[in-house]
Amino acid sequence: MSAQKNWLAVASAEHVRRGRELGFMQVCHGKVAPLRRVHPGNGVVYYSPTTSFQGKDKLQCFTAVGVVKLGQPYEFDMGGGFRPYRRDVDWWPAQEASIRPLLDILEFTAVGSNWGYQLRFGLFSISDHDFKLIAETMRANVAKVEVV
């Protein structure tokens, strides 16, 4: 993935698990603008600070890793007037993994104790180094998934 961009998205584990199961990503409370920065072939990693949305539990794990599929962001009717935007993703078989053992070696956490500040944006670019390291830590099985 040398010439392609990689992204770290942030959401609760329960939301990520739903998206992983159904093959999509959704960020920033369903806003379309952040998803327009993400393109087919880009790598995506989800980080989940908590297990549940607005939960107080600390999970602090990477919960999904994969590659964005062809297509554009699309609106999805979840009922009750909530129509978030999504992108389709080929999620790789992987295990959830704690961020803690990686804090000293990830480039995006090199800023020191304030590394969590950028998580507030919900989606930001990460290096190939970080993407590969996270995927390896999650024991992602990239050989089973074809980028389409």
Summarize the topology.
Blueprint: E1 6-10, H1 13-22, E2 24-25, H2 32-36, E3 43-48, E4 61-68, E5 74-75, E6 85-91, E7 97-98, E8 123-126, H3 128-137
Parallel strand pairs: 1-3
Antiparallel strand pairs: 1-8, 2-6, 3-4, 4-6, 4-7, 5-6
In short:
With 148 residues, the chain is an alpha+beta fold. Helices cover 17% and strands 24% of the residues.
| CATH structural fold name | ph1033 like fold
Q: Indicate the overall shape.
A: globular
What is the helix/strand order?
EHEHEEEEEEH
Quick one: biggest sheet?
A: 8 strands, mixed
Under CATH, the homologous superfamily reads ph1033 like domains
Helix content class: 10-25%
**Helical segment tally?**
3
Strand content: 15-25%
Distance between the termini: 15 Å
What is the CATH class designation? Alpha Beta
How would you explain this protein's 3D organization?
The chain has 148 residues and is an alpha+beta fold. The chain has one domain: Roll (ph1033 like fold). The chain has three helices and eight strands. It has helices spanning 13-22, 32-36, 128-137; strands at residues 6-10, 24-25, 43-48, 61-68, 74-75, 85-91, 97-98, 123-126. Strands 1, 2, 3, 4, 5, 6, 7 and 8 form an eight-stranded mixed β-sheet that branches. It is globular and about 40 Å long.
List keywords for this structure.
UPF0310 protein MPC4_380022; alpha+beta; UPF0310; EVE_domain; globular; PUA-like_sf; ph1033 like fold; eight-stranded mixed beta sheet; 148 residues
